[in-house]
């Protein structure tokens, strides 16, 4: 996904794991931890608040989920999906058939797990594992597994 790659080229310092919050903030998006999202059953949301693009994420979820949520919400912003998105946990499933949500998920995967960085990590390791790569990139094992399959490094 070229939009994620362009955002990384402009705002990523090249260190792993990719910091989606820092990238969002450098792109002019405010990022707020909002515990009230848990009560609403939400992982995150994107909206324009007082004229400022704003991502809210649920800080009560596991760290890897928080990072993916922020990446997903950046996707809604960059891919111009509209003014407001509220994302229940189900939207982050690989089985999500909503094309807008699937696009935001792909964007998050490309942002948090850049193809070149994955290739480098695989080549530099004597025995790369899904769990080891997931830890290095700060994502869940499932997210890493799907990314490796999509990049052709792993069979589905």
Automatic annotation (TrEMBL):
Q: What is this protein called?
A: IrrE N-terminal-like domain-containing protein
Annotated source species: Methylococcus capsulatus (strain ATCC 33009 / NCIMB 11132 / Bath)
All residue ranges annotated as the IrrE N-terminal-like domain in the record: 24-148
- Record-linked PANTHER family: ANTITOXIN HIGA1, BLL0069 PROTEIN
Q: Which Pfam families match?
A: Peptidase_M78
